[in-house]
User: Which sequence fits this backbone?
């Protein structure tokens, strides 16, 4: 295991913990004002991190050398904002141990994008991975009744719809970030900082009108969550820069297992064994999808 794998594992642990902390301590607050506070804090926290980790010999001016690169950078930033908002709404409205496995099926959406846009070949193991991850979705939604009822619930239950939509958006974001960090070789701090700025730009127009809905006692916690977000985003970008995206993505999205375990232990959410099994199936499935 090299340093890139360690970055990806650390990102998964931190992301999973973040989801549970959000649900436990901030899940009752309006999502958009919360995002304004957290990502505004994250931008401030990340400024010294970005300065310290900026690569030697790279000037900010001239880093983005083409209109295409600039467009991809802005698109990734704004899409990240929408994806984060949708995913937090899913966690806010549903149980984290149910929502997380669905929201972390990101590689299942990355795969068809790469096949269609980048010409990636779909191998037998990837087909198996899709089937295994689909089984995880089925198990997460299974209660009793008709054979197709779990799929029907996943497509009609609002938190599940939001979680899957968020995963699809993150799929587009991950492919774009891969291009930015690998093909275009943009500095990690630039990609992370603009990603945080994009999330703030998406949440600010709606969140600023309801910011007074956040009690003052929540401010210190929100600032602390901003630090966690800054560290998580930097660690994730380092993983994507250091090892192939096809390896980093399934490790990072294993955060679903972390969220399910912590959600079951700390939030006392129901159906813990079933949801743990579903999250493990989803993680194994996305891992197989990512194999080349």
Assistant:
């Amino acid at each position: 295991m090299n340093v890139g794998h360690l970055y990806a594992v650390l990102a998964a642990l931190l992301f999973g913990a973040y989801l549970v902390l959000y649900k436990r301590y901030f899940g009752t607050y309006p999502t958009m004002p919360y995002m304004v506070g957290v990502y505004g804090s994250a931008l401030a926290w990340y400024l010294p991190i970005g300065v310290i980790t900026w690569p030697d010999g790279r000037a900010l001016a001239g880093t983005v050398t083409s209109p295409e690169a600039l467009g991809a950078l802005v698109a990734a930033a704004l899409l990240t904002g929408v994806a984060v908002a949708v995913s937090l709404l899913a966690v806010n409205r549903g149980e984290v141990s149910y929502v997380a496995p669905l929201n972390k099926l990101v590689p299942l959406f990355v795969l068809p994008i790469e096949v269609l846009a980048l010409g990636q070949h779909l191998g037998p193991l990837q087909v198996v991975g899709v089937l295994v991850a689909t089984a995880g979705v089925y198990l997460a939604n299974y209660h009793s009744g008709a054979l197709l009822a779990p799929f029907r619930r996943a497509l009609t239950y609002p938190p599940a719809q939001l979680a899957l939509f968020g995963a699809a958006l993150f799929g587009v974001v991950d492919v774009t970030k891969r291009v930015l960090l690998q093909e275009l070789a943009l500095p990690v701090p630039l990609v992370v900082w603009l990603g945080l700025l994009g999330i703030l730009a998406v949440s600010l127009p709606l969140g600023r009108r309801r910011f007074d809905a956040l009690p003052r006692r929540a401010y210190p916690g929100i600032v602390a969550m901003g630090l966690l977000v800054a560290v998580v985003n930097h660690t994730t970008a380092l993983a994507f820069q250091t090892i192939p995206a096809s390896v980093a993505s399934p490790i990072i999205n294993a955060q679903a297992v972390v969220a399910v375990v912590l959600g079951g232990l700390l939030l006392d959410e129901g159906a813990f064994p079933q949801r743990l099994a579903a999250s493990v199936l989803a993680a194994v499935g996305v891992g197989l999808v990512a194999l080349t």
